[in-house]
TrEMBL record:
SusE outer membrane protein domain segment(s): 23-133
Source species of the chain: Dysgonomonas mossii
Lineage of origin: Bacteria, Pseudomonadati, Bacteroidota, Bacteroidia, Bacteroidales
Signal peptide boundaries: 1-18
Descriptive protein name: SusF/SusE family outer membrane protein
PROSITE patterns cross-referenced by the UniProt entry: PROKAR_LIPOPROTEIN
Length: 351
């Protein structure tokens, strides 16, 4: 028996000063007359790159499908891990009537990461994926599928470029306040940030990757160390100086007593963890013992002897952090100068 499906097309005929009548025509759709197009070959492999996130990684092209009459065809570019028969297919792009889709590194990466989480494939790992086009003209019509093309694709795991800390002592819970903490990236360690501040135990704080109450704020990652949480905020155990070290790749936030050191000739040498600053109230200070370039850093086990990965200087009365940058401008000091840091205000003095 020939299978028929009907798709209604409604048109209206309006007559002045008369009631509206509608006629219903029916277009007959024969499944056996439908013809799918073909998906063009693609590259055998791709390495997705977060530095090219908004650039087109490839333009996927296919030939037009036919459903036996002039219809608005919905095409979907679908993907799944190879050999899974599209059981957990994800849509890379959905278009009406078009037969090509320019896909960026970011778009493809985001879709593949969602698949990788299902199959426990680690980010930055090469995996093989099946890609096809589905074509349909409505929910009541069974989609047509093109040939499947296969490619080996390496994803990337992107991290936010900025992390901000807000709290009662850091901006007064107001994202537009100058007191918001802009955490400093650790040199050479993507997705890792740090900040030293004087904290009060009674006052909570939290983080976000944008300066806004956009629902993305957080007070912990998968694991935490050195602080407690309550009511959706983080708290330190006692008043004092702390370093916040946020390790997004390992999904951990650590807060511990801050250690700040001098480095170089003006402090006596180039040994790490040897010339510590001393805390007094909400400031930290040290006195130079020789003449030389002023260099300072935050001590943290994760960077080991690479102290310059968390380096900073005083320039024009302000604390300037190296972050991901190169060597900073040099400031020379004489022996016997007291160097004082006010991390909360972002200022420093040499006197």
């Amino acid at each position: 028996m020939k299978l028929l499906k009907y798709i209604p097309v409604v048109f209206l005929s309006l007559i002045t000063f008369a009631s509206c009548d509608s006629d219903l025509d029916k277009v007959t759709y024969h499944e056996e007359d439908a013809k799918i197009g073909a998906l063009n070959p693609i590259a055998s492999s791709y390495v997705l790159d977060d530095k090219k996130a908004d650039e087109v990684v490839d333009t996927f092209k296919w030939t037009k499908a036919s459903f036996g009459y002039d219809a608005a065809i919905i095409y979907k570019l679908e993907v799944d891990v190879a050999g899974k028969d599209f059981a957990n297919k994800k849509t890379i792009s959905s278009l009406i009537g078009k037969t090509q889709a320019a896909i960026t590194h970011k778009e493809l990466n985001n879709v593949l990461l969602s698949l990788d989480s299902i199959y426990n494939i680690p980010p930055r790992t090469e995996a093989t994926y099946d890609i096809r086009i589905s074509a349909t003209i409505g929910d009541v019509i069974t989609p047509l599928y093109t040939n499947v093309v296969t490619s080996k694709i390496t994803t990337y795991l992107s991290y936010p470029k900025n992390v901000y800390m807000i709290g009662a002592d850091f901006g007064g819970w107001n994202w537009s306040d100058a007191g918001i903490v802009d955490m400093t990236p650790v040199w050479g360690l993507d997705g890792t940030f740090w900040a030293i501040r004087y904290f009060k135990a009674a006052n909570g704080f939290k983080w976000n990757t944008s300066k806004a109450w956009d629902g993305s704020d957080f007070y912990e990652l998968d694991s935490k160390e050195g602080y407690t949480t309550n009511g959706g905020n983080a708290f330190v155990p006692a008043d004092g100086f702390y370093i916040v070290y946020m390790d997004m790749p390992n999904k951990k936030i650590t807060i511990k007593a801050a250690e700040v050191y001098g480095m170089g000739d003006c402090f006596g040498g180039w040994s790490t963890a040897t010339y510590p600053f001393t805390a007094s109230g909400n400031k930290m200070s040290i006195t130079t013992t020789g003449a030389g370039e002023l260099r300072m850093y935050a001590g943290y086990p994760a960077v080991g002897g690479d102290w310059w990965k968390m380096e900073f200087i005083i320039l024009n009365g302000k604390i300037e952090y190296r972050g991901k940058g190169g060597d900073q401008d040099r400031v020379s000091v004489a022996a016997g100068k007291k160097v004082t840091l006010d991390f909360n205000a972002g200022t420093g003095t040499i006197e």
